[in-house]
Specification:
Structural class: alpha/beta
Number of strands: 9
Number of helices: 8
């Protein structure tokens, strides 16, 4: 029997659009009507087997990152369910997870503890994380002083070295200088070789998903358009986007 690491059933996530409202209108009306609700994820269901590497692709606004944040526990579904079977999970995503007033070193400890690791384990891994991140003296400076590339390096290094059972990756592999991109890709390949680790990668990069993934899910307007072998799904997606 197949052992599943992630089961998503009838997942729906909505949010309200505030663009067309003034504060005065909102106070007078009190509520938004239904046409102002954006259905970011609409009745999505899928199962990912333990050890699989899934890629998720789709145009901007298709619901990819929203769904990934829901799996990570950052967003709460409006309806439906997400079952991670008790596995530890981490999300690599720019702009998520760091306290900008704290230093990089302090954020390593905070992030590790939020992922469920002991203080001793994080301290044992700290030097390895710092070495991999290649931030030099910036490791002891506030994260608010970091560029997006530096932020991405630290985020990737923490999750890659601490190694949770489920890794969710949102475009982080495409950020940073070319040397670090290659280093990150090689590290991801080594992590993927562990048959007990499940990985979900959201990306616009067809070559990256084709190289790394065992299966690809194409999302469009909050719904699943197709799930299948990477070559087949990515070819159809590329044709659709022409």
């Amino acid at each position: 029997m197949s052992e599943y690491a992630i089961e998503v059933n009838n997942l729906c996530i909505d949010y309200k659009s505030l663009k067309s409202y003034s504060i005065k209108k909102m106070l007078l009306r009190g509520k938004h009507n239904t046409k102002d609700v954006v259905h970011a994820v609409r009745n999505v269901s899928f199962k990912i087997q333990k050890g699989e590497i899934w890629g998720i692709i789709g145009k901007n606004g298709s619901g990819k990152s929203t769904m990934l944040k829901a799996i990570a526990g950052i967003f709460s579904p409006d309806s439906g369910s997400i079952d991670l079977k008790g596995h530890s999970v981490s999300l690599l995503s720019i702009g998520v997870g760091f306290q900008t007033k704290l230093t990089g070193r302090e954020n390593i400890m905070l992030s590790g503890m939020l992922l469920g690791f002991s203080e001793k384990h994080i301290k044992d891994k700290q030097d390895e994380i710092i070495e991999f991140a290649e931030l030099g003296d910036f490791i002891d400076k506030p994260v608010r002083t970091y560029s997006s590339g530096m932020y991405s390096k630290l985020a990737f290094s923490i999750t890659a070295v601490l190694e949770t059972e489920i890794m969710l990756v949102d475009e982080v592999l495409s950020v940073g200088d070319e040397k670090f991109k290659k280093k990150s890709l090689n590290k991801m390949k080594s992590l993927i070789n562990d048959e007990n680790r499940t990985v979900v990668i959201v990306s616009h990069s067809i070559p990256t998903l084709k190289e790394l993934c065992t299966k690809v899910m194409w999302m469009h307007d909050g719904e699943i358009k197709k799930i299948g072998e990477p070559g087949e799904v990515l070819k159809e997606y590329a044709e659709f986007m022409k």
